[in-house]
């Protein structure tokens, strides 16, 4: 408990400047005016702008600045904007019609902006971002530090946000209507994008359960095991198997840990090394895989905020693909595992554990059957690799086809020929930017489940009743682990949007923060939060909704530009969250990795930590810093990072086969 209080105290000190620093009022008002969905202009003209619109500052309003102009242009991107002599703004969306005149008024507290029509009546109201907008997400973080309970922390943060959203003079019970009707029902359950994401997670989980139950995963493992003849070969099998099971980190951990354990014992490789391989090819590979449960979740944490910068949520997948070259920690973590195997170099406690294993001192714990497996192979089935490979091939193939077909259908036919003439690369980029990624991965996962069920029934591996039970078990295991976290993450993101948390942060940092520092600060902040909470998903849910607008606005003055800083910043949050989760002793994947590998949890934590810290340090100093400050190509940064890790392993690492094994025994 002392450690938790220490983390909470340090985090509170880090956040204290956010409450003390001044926020530019013009920026706050301009963002409240043009915020998508809940902004004053969007509420006043939900069906589109009038032919001509003129606004002027009134009581409490600041002189108009760039954010006010951006708000009008967001209402009509193709309209003509004029700055009149008296400081008023006029937007001409199309010729004809008398201009609609509106006045901006702001209350004394500076927390609500009202648009007043020519008749003196209020047309719309919007909340202005204030210090109170920080309370809901910060409470969720602090409670996560103290309780280590993700659902409780997010739930109380959401509840506080609901009370903050209650209009002045309304009863406090209005908070529950806002939370359950406005947010949960209308913005989460009825949102097609979120519904497809939930469906994808459910269907993919059911698919993994069915192919595991009918021996498909075991068959894939056995097909690879025959390539292991030495200690290095055993590690390589686990490594490539971990990369191959890219679609889910839990499935990766359980399958590789349980399947490769006996092989490691036979080849005298430590279970500590197995747990390191398992942990470092679980979240890192699922985080950057083109299709996985992690990809769906990661996209969902920032895609709902994309309309704030003129992008649609459906462009989230294309944006995710752009972040992959900047996912330095995940890529370096995957490379580091391969380097330790092929260079035969180990660092610190891992070198001693490996040397002891070579001398015959096993660190494997006694197995406890079923203690960590959610679904196991049915004893009457045969282990067939094709039962696992075919559904996964359909998952990839159908998803890729649907990504292309949906995107191609969405491209304006009048523009398609010109885009094709620019080359295949331009066409594919356009298709991916226009496609409905959530629908595509939903269709792919549905096809994978259908193929898995047909294989199970057609080859008589499982009966109809067993297929139904297995599917239900796979779905039930996700209810708390993913579905509730997803729903609550979307809810707190919607609350932050309504409170204009991002707008307030933009107003605080826009005039004082060098944009080049933003990715580094986000990476470190995400590391700290994820390590202390043990949850990368919680970290993404809390930090990511406020990154989109912040990075876009700060990027206007950076060498990377708004879009470049946005891509780099999104990647930095995702990577910092995964690193913190990777190192945290209270992380579910860290605990599951040691359990599935049958090694003492503390041994796994201390033997893995040096490698994770090296990868994080290289990601920060060789990756994010030169890319952000110098504009270095991410590919050059990856090459430099690889060279740095090779040099560090050759300098600090030792060959366990050459160590004095008896002295290294624990």
Task: Give an overview of the whole structure.
The chain is mainly alpha-helical and 666 residues long. Among the domains are: 79 residues, no CATH class; 104 residues; 253 residues, no CATH class. Helices cover 67% and strands 5% of the residues. The protein is built from 31 helices and 6 strands. A 6-stranded mixed beta sheet has the order 2-3-1-4-5-6. β2 and β3 form a beta hairpin. α16 packs across α29. The longest helix is centred in the last third of the chain and has 36 residues.
Tally of contiguous helical segments: 31
Report the mean per-residue pLDDT as an integer: 81
Tell me how many strands there are: 6
| Oligomer type | single chain
Shape: globular
Helix content: 55-70%
**How are strands sequenced across the largest beta sheet?**
2-3-1-4-5-6
Unreliable residue stretches: 367-373
């Amino acid at each position: 408990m002392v450690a938790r209080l220490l983390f909470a105290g340090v985090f509170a000190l880090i956040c204290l400047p956010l409450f003390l620093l001044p926020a530019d009022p013009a920026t706050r008002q301009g963002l409240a005016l043009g915020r998508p969905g809940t902004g004053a202009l969007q509420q006043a003209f939900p069906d589109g702008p009038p032919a001509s619109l003129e606004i002027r500052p009134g009581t409490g309003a600041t002189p108009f600045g760039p954010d006010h102009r951006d708000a009008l242009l967001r209402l009509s991107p193709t309209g003509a904007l004029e700055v009149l002599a008296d400081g008023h703004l006029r937007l001409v969306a199309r010729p004809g019609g008398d201009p609609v005149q509106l006045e901006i008024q702001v209350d004394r507290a500076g927390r609500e902006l009202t648009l007043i029509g020519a008749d003196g009546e209020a047309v719309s109201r919007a909340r202005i971002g204030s210090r109170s907008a920080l309370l809901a997400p910060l409470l969720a973080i602090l409670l996560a530090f103290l309780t280590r309970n993700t659902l409780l922390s997010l739930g109380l943060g959401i509840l506080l946000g609901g009370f903050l959203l209650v209009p002045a003079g309304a009863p406090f019970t209005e908070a529950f209507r806002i939370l359950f009707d406005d947010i949960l029902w209308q913005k989460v359950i009825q949102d097609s994008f979120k519904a497809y994401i939930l469906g994808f997670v459910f269907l993919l989980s059911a698919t993994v359960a069915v192919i595991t139950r009918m021996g498909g995963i075991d068959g894939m493992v056995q097909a690879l095991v025959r390539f292991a003849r030495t200690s290095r070969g055993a590690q390589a099998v686990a490594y490539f198997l971990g990369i191959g099971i890219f679609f889910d980190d839990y499935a990766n951990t359980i399958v590789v840990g349980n399947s490769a354990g006996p092989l490691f014992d036979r080849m005298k490789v430590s279970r500590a090394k197995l747990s390191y391989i398992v942990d470092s090819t679980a979240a890192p590979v699922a985080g950057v895989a083109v299709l996985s449960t992690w990809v769906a979740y990661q996209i969902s944490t920032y895609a709902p905020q994309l309309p704030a910068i003129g992008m649609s949520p459906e462009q989230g997948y294309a944006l995710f693909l752009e972040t992959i070259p900047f996912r330095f920690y995940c890529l370096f973590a995957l490379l580091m595992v391969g380097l330790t195997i092929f260079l035969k170099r180990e660092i610190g406690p891992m070198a001693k554990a490996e040397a002891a294993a070579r001398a015959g001192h096993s660190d494997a714990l006694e197995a406890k059957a079923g203690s960590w497996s959610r679904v196991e192979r049915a004893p009457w089935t045969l282990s067939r690799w094709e039962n696992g490979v075919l559904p996964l091939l359909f998952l990839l193939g159908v998803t890729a086809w649907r990504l292309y077909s949906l995107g191609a259908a969405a491209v304006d036919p009048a523009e398609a020929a010109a885009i094709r003439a620019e080359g295949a690369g331009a066409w594919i980029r356009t298709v991916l930017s226009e496609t409905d990624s959530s629908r595509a991965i939903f269709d792919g996962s549905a096809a994978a489940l259908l193929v898995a069920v047909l294989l199970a029934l057609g080859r008589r591996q499982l009966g109809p009743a067993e297929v139904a039970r297995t599917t239900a078990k796979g779905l039930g295991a996700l209810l708390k682990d993913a579905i509730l976290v997803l729903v609550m993450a979307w809810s707190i993101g919607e609350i932050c949007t309504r409170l204009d948390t991002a707008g307030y942060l933009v107003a605080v940092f826009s005039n004082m923060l060098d944009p080049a520092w933003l990715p580094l600060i986000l990476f470190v902040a995400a590391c700290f939060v994820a390590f202390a909470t043990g949850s990368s998903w919680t970290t993404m849910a809390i930090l990511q909704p406020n990154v989109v607008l912040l990075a876009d606005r700060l990027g206007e003055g950076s060498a990377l530009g708004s879009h470049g800083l946005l891509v780099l910043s999104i990647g930095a949050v995702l990577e910092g969250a995964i690193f913190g989760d990777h190192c945290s002793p209270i992380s579910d994947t860290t605990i599951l990795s040691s359990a599935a590998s049958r090694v003492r949890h503390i041994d796994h934590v201390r033997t893995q930590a040096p490698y994770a810290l090296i990868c994080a340090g290289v990601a920060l100093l060789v990756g994010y810093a030169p890319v952000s400050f110098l504009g270095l190509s991410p590919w050059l940064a990856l090459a430099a990072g690889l060279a740095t890790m090779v040099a560090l392993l050759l300098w600090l690492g030792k060959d366990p086969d050459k160590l004095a094994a008896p002295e290294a025994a624990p």
